[in-house]
Amino acid sequence: MKPAFLPGVILNKVKKLCLFGLLHAPASLFAADANVVIPWQNGATFSTNISLYTTMPGETKTLSVTPQGCYRFTAPPSYSGSGVTIVQTSYSATGAGYDITIIGPGKEGTATVAGSIEPDPACASGSGGTGTTPTQPFDISVLQRQAWIYFTNPANGTNLTTCAGCTNDVAVKVVLGNSTAPSSGTASFSASPTALGTFTPTSVALDSAGAGAVSFTSTTNGGLGTITANGIYLADASGTIVPDVSKEMVANVIKVTQIDVFKTNTTTWAATDKLPWTSVILRNTDFRFTLTLNNQIGAMTDFPCTIQARTYSAAADPEDWKTIPLDSNDVLHTNGTEIRVILTGAEVISLGLLAATAGDALDEFTSADRVANAAQSNHNDGDMFDNDFAGAGKKQRGKARDDGDVAANPPESAVNKEFMTAGGVRFIEIRAGGAKSQIRQIHDQADWLYYSGHGDHSSGRLSGADFLPADAQGKWNQDLKTVVFAGCSVLDIKDYNNRYGGADHTASPGEKWIGTGPTRFFGYCFTAPIDTQGGDPNATATIVHDWFTAGRTAANWIDANNKEIGYNACAIDLTTNPWEYRYFHRKLQLFPPGFTYVKSTVQYDTVNNKWPDTDPNF
Amino acid sequence: MKTQTILRCMLLLSFVGIQNGGAMDFVPVSPDTLVIEKSMSSSEDAARELENLAMRLSLDMRQDVEYDQKHVQELVDFVERNRRDVAGLTGKVYLAFYLTIVRQDGRLQHEHRRELEEKALAIFASVATQFPNTWQGKLSSIYDAEVLALKPDDDKQRHIDRARRALPIAAMVDEDSSFRSFQKALGIDDPLELSLRSQIISGLLDIGDPAAARKELGVIKQKFPQFKTTVRLEKRLASFNK
Questions:
Q1: Chain B residues within an 8 Å CB radius of A564
Q2: What confidence score (pLDDT) does residue A117 get?
Q3: Which residue of B has its CA nearest to A541?
Q4: A211 forms bridges with which residues in the sheet?
Q5: Of A64, A258, A568, B186, which sits with the fewest C-beta atoms within 10 Å of its C-beta?
Q6: List of E strands, A2-126
Q7: Strand A580-589 to strand A569-573: parallel, antiparallel, or no bridges (unpaired)?
Q8: Contacts of A617 in chain B (CB under 8 A)
């Protein structure tokens, strides 16, 4: 549709008002591209229709209608609009013309301008004032058909916030002023800076609805920039070329620069609250971590990345990532660049990061081996324990060696109170937005625990891990069934061999472990053998291996120790009725001279609810 | 697996200090310097003193077997002070016995153990030679290098044979009240013969000869019916039969 002629007026001076902050149409959109000569007659009235093309809904533009030469309107012209609202904003009887403001509805409309003109007396020397008939009394600027482009994905007016390395659909739509789609055209896309990402394809032909969609894949760099969509090669239904249109939006490519896990026993988020490798996230406690972002986001819901976590026990385990949804427990820190996530113990389970019940059906093992004196001790026994169990197809639940080494393969936990409290761990790691956390330990109690380190008789303390029987209360009742304390004296009951004086004689530390959860405790009632006893680096490893291959019972433990270095072995078996305490009874003999050791089994006195004060067998 | 107490570590350091000091001969011990007169009297005071000394040492040994200079010196002093008393002779046997025990101190090096063993055997030999008709001499006669080397994991048959050879002597010394007092001071309840026969039964079971073990048990039940060891052996054999 072309605009109708408007006698005696010039339509020009288009002004637009941007209602959308990011919508900047080029000035050329509204430039007149033709002047039309209108026949003129002095004193004549005129009435003509103008086809007007507005741009965006709600957008306004102002046109000036001014008589040409030394003529003026005899009276303010009248205006009426159809489809558009026209408001007269000014009138000058001196030839300055008048302005009208057209409030566009976003579609095509028509306006009728009617009135009369006469020579302008103020223009005394002008030819018009003398009634000279101008040959070209009126010019009319024909408004070119316009178009606009807007994003439909993300929705118009919305910034694109995406995750580094992720692919998003980006779509635009081009609409002509009359609300029709262009008959043809192309949408092309670009990002600034270019390092922000790439489009696939970079341009696409508009469909019949004027829509075009591409994929935007951000680089892993992250960053802040713009995405520009251009509507090019546009034409209307009649094939008339429509000028290019363009639209920008802000692109915020979020990259997670760091993920930190925090301690569970505090609610603060200071650097000192970060969870060290040597700590363990216990079952039914909060799992807390932060995501540090490269750019600010306005709200947590703007966070575009997927947060995932997985737990595993061995590097060869298949990767099983669980998606962590953000919820009301989680907050966007006030600086907008840090998300603080709290997974409750229940959420950890419901997400499948830990089994619903601690007492699973798997046969799992773990070991903790501390070498206090490298000249006498080694890890051969702990390693033997691990190898034997792994070789039998049992599942490992972490291994602790000395002060720990996260870089070891597999990672080594520290032999400390936290590891012993857990009684077995898996590894947990988080990933989001191109970042991955360091691995940390999460509670997954094993069925079999082997501890190798010093022990203290008076308290039953596993001094190599600073772990007391009281520390196991309420913690070792999840899955542990058998523990081996390859350390001195902590399983002694009643000192049947009279090897302690003073308060130690009645300390009976083995009794302190009863009731913590496991039903079988294997260890020593006096000094334990040294790992390298007799110059054999596998002295204790052999005991472990013999016990394992024999069947791993209490009797097997005693039998595996039935040699000179192992006579201080003992075993508490709560699976029998009544309970049993096995040890080697020691007594002096003349032939051959020395101490003799005889296997003895003492049964719990269920009548008096105590272990006998002396061994009834001797 | 690791040893336990700081105290133990301190003792070890002390011991290392002694070792580094030179010869292993912590306390000079020699049969030549521990001469017992042939004509002996019998003093109750000396006997009581030895009994107390033996009880104290056995109490110390119950904790762990460790060579203790002070203990050895006490025994040497006792023997030297009572060389004309039966208690001196008993003390000399006890000193040799004590050396055979402390040679099992896990901290000792092999050559040091052998040195202690040689000294003990020399003392046993001198007592057995010089006082063959006393329980001290008879008891000493059963000890030789092979007996001292016997260990539970060694050749079971050899162990059985050596125990059998010692049975007649054991039966003789068991009848002596002075020997029983000596055993009591050491905290040993079973007669020597019962101890030997018990070891024979264990050895027979270990080599898979329960019939012979049952036969041996029959002897024990007849001669030592009231002892817990007898009851325990009965249970063990009954369990073995199952």
A1: 151-153
A2: 67
A3: B1
A4: A173
A5: A258
A6: 10-16, 35-38, 45-52, 60-66, 71-73, 78-82, 85-92, 97-103, 109-119
A7: antiparallel
A8: 228, 232
What CATH number does residue A614 fall under?
A: 3.40.50
Q: What pLDDT was estimated at residue A17?
A: 24
Report yes or no: B16 and B82 within 8 Å, Cβ to Cβ: no
Polymer length in residues for chain A:
618
Can you tell me the ipTM of this complex?
A: 0.88
Q: Which of A334, A354, A374 is the last residue of a domain?
A: A354
Do the Cβ atoms of B4 and A527 come within 8 Å?
yes
- Ranking A88-97, A374-383, A399-408, A591-600 by mean pLDDT, the lowest is A88-97
Least confident of A397-411, B14-28, B131-145, B176-190: B14-28
| Number of neighbours of residue A125 by Cβ within 10 angstroms | 8
Inform me whether the pLDDT recorded for B24 exceeds 70.
Answer: no
Specify which residues A401 forms β-bridges with. Answer: A369
DSSP string, A212-256: EEEEEEE-TT-EEEEEEEEEEEEE-TT--EE--EEEEEEEEEE-E
Which residue in chain B is spatially nearest to A523 when comparing CA positions? B1
Q: Is the preceding peptide bond at A193 cis, omega within 30 degrees of 0?
A: yes
Query: B100 to chain A: which residues are within 8 Å by CB?
Result: 593-594
Q: Does the residue A176 lie in any domain?
A: yes
Residue A127 is predicted with a pLDDT of: 42
pLDDT at position A301 is 92
In this structure, the answer to whether residues A336 and A449 fall within a common structural domain is: no
**Domain for residue A5, yes or no?**
no
Other C-beta atoms within 10 Å of B165: how many? Answer: 12
Same domain, A330 and A371: no
Q: Where are the domains of chain B?
A: 27-127, 150-242
- Is B213's pLDDT higher than 90? yes
Backbone torsions φ then ψ of A412, nearest 5 degrees:
-110, 125
A262 located within any domain: yes
pLDDT of residue A65: 58
Q: What CATH number is attached to the domain comprising A199? A: 2.60.40.10
Contact call for residues A442 and A280 (beta carbons, < 8 A): yes
Q: Is the dihedral angle over the CA atoms A521, A526, A531, A533 positive or is it negative? A: negative
Q: Are strands A520-524 and A569-573 parallel, antiparallel or unpaired?
A: antiparallel
How many domains does chain A contain in total? 4
B142 and chain A in contact, CB less than 8 A: yes
Query: What domain range includes position A517?
Result: 357-427+442-618
- Asked if B2 and A373 come within 8 Å (Cβ–Cβ), the reply is yes
- Pairwise CA distance, residues B73 & B95, whole Å: 10
- pLDDT tens sequence across A39-74: 344 444 555 445 454 444 455 555 555 565 566 667
The closest of A210, A153, A141 to A2, measured between CA atoms, is: A141
State whether A66 and A185 are in the same domain: no
Does A517 share its domain with A369?
yes
Closest residue in B to A381 (Cα) is B1
Q: How confident is the model at residue A346 (pLDDT cuts 50, 70, 90)?
A: very high
Of A298-312, A347-361, B27-41, minimum mean pLDDT range: B27-41
Distance in Å, alpha carbon of A578 to nearest chain B alpha carbon: 18
Selection from A204, A210, A202, A131 nearest residue A173 by Cα: A210
Within-domain flag for A434: no
Which residues from chain A sit within 8 angstroms of residue B200, using beta carbons?
A: none
- Lowest-pLDDT range, A448-462, B100-114, B119-133? B100-114
Check whether residue A462 and residue A552 sit in a common domain: yes
Percent pLDDT > 70 in chain A is 76
